[in-house]
What does this fold into?
Amino acid sequence: MAIIEVNHLTKEYQLGHLTSLKETALNALRRVTFQPVHERELFKALDDVNFHIDEGEVVGIIGHNGAGKSTLLKHLANISTPTKGKVIVRGSVAPLIEVGAGVNPELTGRENIYLNGAILGIPKKVIQQKLDEIIDFSELEQFIDTPVKRYSSGMTVKLGFSIATSMEADILIVDEVLAVGDLAFQRKCFDRMEYMIKRQGKTVLIVSHNIRQIERLCNRVLLLNNGKISIDSDSKTACDEFYRQNDNRILENITNSSRAQKTDEIDLLEFKFYNEKGEETEKIEYLSSPSINFKVAVHKKIELPVFIIGIHTTDLLYIATQKSDIEIKNQPLLPGIYQYRCQLLNLQLLPGPYCLRFSVDRGQFTTNIYYGENLLRFNVLSKEISNSDSSAEGFFSINTKWEQI
Amino acid sequence: MHNIFINLYKYRELIAALTWKNIVIRYKQAYLGILWAVLKPIMLMLVFTLVKSFVGIETGGLPYPLITFAALIPWVFFQESVSEGVNSVTSNASLIKKIYFPREVFPLTAMVTKLVELLISFAILAGMMIYYQVMPTVNAVWIPAFVLYTMIVALTISFFGAAMNVYYRDIGQAIPIALSLLMYGSPVIYPLSLVQKKLVIEQAAGAWSNDLYFLYSLNPLVGIIDGFQSALIRATQPDFDVIYPGLILILTILPFSYWFFKRAESWFADVI
It folds into this structure.
């Protein structure tokens, strides 16, 4: 039997202000006298959502802002009530919705552990047993008897996360909590989540904008779009589709306004991408050698100019950057128009969408005088490796030779 | 309706923890600590005693400070429980949006918090009784029943008020005003015998006198305060005739108030 069942879940919110007492009274009067009532506009945050989750499944929920992710979690955690439809949850739920919600600034760390434990429904005995473990995990031994109002914000979140994950429930609901604390603590949180998922076989629902994390942790992903489930499948397919949607959005933004910071010293007039045959294109073959042509207008004399071209993913993860100063000698550039070409030899990027960034530095102390990212987008295609092939994951292909020794 | 008691038991640890939090937070950085909680009835008693020395109120031979303090104990407990209870849901908005447990935990917690302060007031009353050499009799066994009754009255108003306050914050504003008016409609400053003398014996309001007196006794605090004074100070049985109207009224409203709260509860997270 499914541990979570969501049947025809619809949630409507009224737009605009909550009416005043006067408006409510007037509406009541109108209802009694059979006159039309002033209704406010409704907004469907969730629209006929259906899915079942079995025990032990790890499900990611992704979607753009306002797609209904958090609203959905709120229904699963029994915080909100559906307008229509039904949510059946068989088992106890540990909601890690914004950890530290119940942390009180006036109380000390230790007192907060007890209070939050009670709020999460952890019996006092269990908390007492786990106290040392919680304090240990939070890395706050030294400050545990200091009021939380004297903590840094990072310390508060660490405390919240440590308490919340010590709760033993059948279902974990996680809303963007992995992004807490410093890098080392984030790592620790991630490991703990992974441990809970893989070792303890808990049912977990995760909402995150960190798609790479979702792809790694989940074996099933729901993609929400305007309150509807547009994809319910394995994580690879759903995440790729989400990337594609995102790319389209970003592309719209690029055509509307390219993200560039300029100075009055230089302007980028042209930035074009060509395939091996010299045709302007957005699609290139895997392992081919495309080239980039760019034309700049120099307005003031530039000492020691350096051009930089970089490749990044659509979510702005920088993959590679190359500077021109090794090959082009640093002649000062006098005002005028110049054209360059940069060829990318045997590009080993795996199939997928990528973007280009371009910047210009000058002088010995490398002052940036032009910077633009998302300037162009291109797709690497391959007949041998498909976009969703799992034999090659990541961004680069590596040459491997396998043998048994 | 019996859900209240089931939840009260099921969530006893949570209510205890939240109560403890309320008390700790309120007095944490205060030098006088929890003594502040009893300062209010003591100050009011002193003021009333001062006023009484000008106007003269018949107390039946008992020391006025004692009589009025015995009235202030249930009154302040009731007043504070209600005003805390009505605001208890809205002041915990962050919890309501993040985690589920039955929402009646909030008004209940507000009341239990005040119960702790009530116990301290009793200690002070005991001290005063020793000073005035007024000894409690067997009638004092009525006190727990009156405390429970006061709690039920406070909850009845809190449930309805807290739920309404989520939608209309006017309630939170109106409650303190209504409560301070209600104090004059309850035998806090004056003893009930004064009202009985005017309305029942002297028929001061003419033909309306008996109706007015009935209306007055519909206020459950009338029965409670008079009962407190009888059981503790006057060493007599409580006067049940003034208790019934209010008690019946409250027991009739309570289920509706609770039902209203539970119905509104599902939308708290959306509107708060």
Summary: Residues 175 and 181 of chain B are 10 Å apart (CA to CA).
